[in-house]
Design a protein that fits this description.
Shape: elongated
Distance between the termini: 42 Å
CATH topology of one domain: Alpha-Beta Plaits
Helix content: 10-25%
Strand content: 15-25%
Number of strands: 14
Oligomer: single chain
Number of helices: 6
Largest sheet: 7 strands, antiparallel
Radius of gyration: 22 Å
CATH architecture of one domain: 2-Layer Sandwich
CATH class of one domain: Alpha Beta
C-alpha cells in the first residue's frame, strides 16, 4: 500500500527568512512552491507534486533568476554577518595579468585562503570588469584581525580611507563600516546587475570559518490576496506571483507583527 503525504504538508506559500538580529524578510507566493526540507518524497510522486511547471526555453529567464538568486545570497551573507570594512581591490598589470580571469581567480583564492588561516578573515568579494570591459577589480566586505593603514585621504563624508598592506597585487581602498547593516547589504548587491558576468565562473566568493551564509527559514501558509504590500513580482514564464515584505529598520511595525498579521505567528519562535 502506498502512502502519500498531503501536498499541504510538504509545500507552503510563505517563506520567512529570520536573520540573527531578529529582522525577517518574507516572500509570499500565489501558489505553494516552497518545499519543507523535513519531508522526502518518492521520485514518482516528486514529479507529480511540483506545482509550477518549467517551460522548455528559459534562456532569458534563467539568467534573470540566476542574478536574482545571486543578489539574494549576497544580501543574506552581508546581513547575517558583522563585517568591519568595505574594500576595493584593483590590480597592477605589472604584478598580475588583470585581464586574465583564471590567473586573477587563482591568486585571489589563495590570498583569501591565507587570510582566513592567518587573520581569521571573513569575506564576501564580488569581481567586476572596468568600464573598458577588460581589466578586473573587486569590491567586497571584510572582517578579521587586520591592521589597515591610513592613506591620508578622506571621503566626501569625511571618513578615513585606509589601505590594506596585505594586498600585494595592486591598489586597495578600505572604509570602516559604521552605518546601517541593511544599507550595506543592499549596497554590496548593486554590483550584481543585468550586465553582470560570472568573471570567475561564480558571481562572488565568500568564506571564513565563522561565516554565516544563510538565515534561518520558516515556511508558513497564508492567503495571498490578503497580504497588502507594494512590491509584486511576476515571472513572465511562470503562472505565479510573489509579494515581498522587505526589511526596513525604520518601520514602526516589526517583522514579527507582520507575521501576526498574516495569521501564522503560532508557528514562529522569536529570535
Amino acid at each position: 500500500m502506498d502512502f502519500r503525504l498531503s501536498e499541504n504538508l510538504v509545500y507552503h506559500n510563505v517563506k520567512a527568512k529570520v536573520y540573527p538580529n531578529g529582522q525577517q524578510k518574507i516572500m509570499v507566493c500565489s501558489k505553494p512552491i516552497f518545499k519543507s526540507e523535513c519531508w522526502e518524497q518518492v521520485d514518482k510522486y516528486e514529479k507529480e507534486s511540483v506545482p509550477v511547471p518549467k517551460p522548455k526555453d528559459m534562456s532569458n529567464e534563467v539568467r534573470g533568476d540566476s542574478l536574482k538568486r545571486a543578489k539574494e545570497a549576497c544580501f543574506d551573507i552581508a546581513y547575517c554577518n558583522d563585517f568591519q570594512w568595505f574594500i576595493t581591490w584593483t590590480l597592477d598589470q605589472k604584478k598580475i595579468d588583470r585581464e586574465n580571469p583564471k590567473e586573477v581567480s587563482g591568486k585571489l583564492q589563495r590570498f583569501l585562503q591565507d587570510k582566513v588561516k592567518r587573520n581569521a578573515a571573513r569575506y564576501i568579494v564580488i569581481p567586476e570588469y572596468h568600464a573598458d570591459g577588460k581589466g578586473i577589480h573587486m569590491h567586497g566586505l571584510l572582517s578579521g584581525d587586520f591592521k589597515m593603514q591610513d592613506s591620508g585621504l578622506i571621503t566626501t563624508t569625511n571618513k578615513i580611507i585606509y589601505n590594506m598592506p596585505q594586498w600585494k597585487y595592486g591598489f586597495s581602498t578600505v572604509i570602516d563600516l559604521d552605518g546601517s547593516k541593511v544599507a550595506v547589504a543592499k549596497y554590496i548587491t548593486k554590483y550584481i546587475t543585468k550586465d553582470f558576468k560570472k568573471i570567475f565562473g561564480s558571481f562572488y566568493y565568500a568564506g571564513g570559518k565563522s561565516l554565516i551564509r544563510k538565515p534561518a527559514v520558516v515556511l508558513l501558509d497564508s492567503d495571498f490576496e490578503s497580504v497588502q504590500v507594494d512590491k509584486i513580482y511576476k515571472p513572465s514564464v511562470w503562472n505565479v506571483k510573489y509579494k515581498y515584505l522587505d526589511i526596513d529598520e525604520q518601520a514602526s511595525v516589526n517583522s514579527l507583527q507582520i507575521l501576526q498579521e498574516i495569521g501564522e505567528v503560532e508557528n514562529v519562535t522569536s529570535a
